[in-house]
Amino acid sequence: MKAKERGATIIHVDPRFTRTSAVADVHVPIRAGSDIAFLGGIIRYILENERYFREYVVNYTNAPAILSENYRDAEDNDGLFGGWEQGNAQYSQKDWSYEGVHPEAAAGAREAGPEGSGPEQNQPIQAEHTDPTLQHPRCVFQVLKRHFSRYTPEMVENACGVPEKLLIRVAEELCTNSGRERTSAFCYAVGWTQHTTGVQYIRTAAIIQALLGNMGRPGGGILALRGHASIQGSTDIPTLYNLLPGYLPVPRSKHDKDYRTYIQLNESPSGWWGEFEKYVVSLLKAWYGDAATVANGWCFEYLPATTGDHSHMNTVAEMADGLVKGYFVMGENPVVGTVNGPLHRKGLRQLEWLVVRDLHLTETAEFWREAPEIQRGEVRPRRSERRCSFFLPPRTPKRTAVLPTPSVCSSGTRRQSSPRETAAANSTSSSNWGSA
What is the pTM of this model? Predict the structure, then answer.
């Protein structure tokens, strides 16, 4: 709203009319799930009317790069891009690269191998053949133009329910507010993040921003609106297994044997990671102070190293396979808050121990007692050694009634705390933890 007070135009694209819509300059009531067609229509408008920031596009994007002769777009290959391998039901990247350049595995593929099959930050692929005039039929710019030519205003209106005049107004607002002197920003929330084609949504928006010169410049970019500590915060703080603060990759035990090797494998000749070493040194000095010196590699050897893919769903799969023995859950409820709840519960059943730290008895804390599989009789809780978890309530003001605190035993029964346990739980002195 402060930006609007300074003259910014707010465009709100949402199937619903919300409080945000009410204060926006333009509301676009789009049909749910049709965002790619809508964004594609904007891209077509920019290309057909030559509203792109040409100097930026030629010098700071891959638009002039010439693609391999083997590249085939969907309309040239009966609806499939070139490189489709029917037997494996996946695409081969060798036909998608620049002319004369061999593609490299994506980060996910590198992580999936034993101990990771490559560094986190790979060296950028440089095109060997380019056409700064953007006229070569196989340059990225012309391929992009042909691909998005299908997203006519009529097609967008049919797919999205957005009238042609409204589409053109949004496209024109973006174009007018972009260029050498001005920038525009895309702000999205979890509606894009959690959609089945959310990655394609965000990448399509990135194409718009690259064409208009709105990437890497103040006031531009694609901004993720986050309200959960575990989403944006997990990358900024960070709490993801493969990132250090500042989005620096955690060293790989197989590759990053010492400080200099780590730097060489992850820095880039240009762009954000062209200053990679400065960010690393700043972090290590912040952590280790005067103990971090050039002579000891800034205490790089103190950093932990990963041995493979320890992401959430991979860890859940390893739990289900019996490879993970114990699990801490803090501030999350993965049994219902993450994909594939049955797999999560199966993994939890294989654990030797589980610790859930929460203010309430969540579905994850009570998976052993109230899971759908147990309610249907498909799984029966088995008796084990008797361990009890006490859920301590927050400190309460005087003259406030405190109900007995429930405690849960792993033997499969639930009971009320005794008066002595309740008094101990609410005592301001240190609590004595006893067995049930």
Answer: 0.65
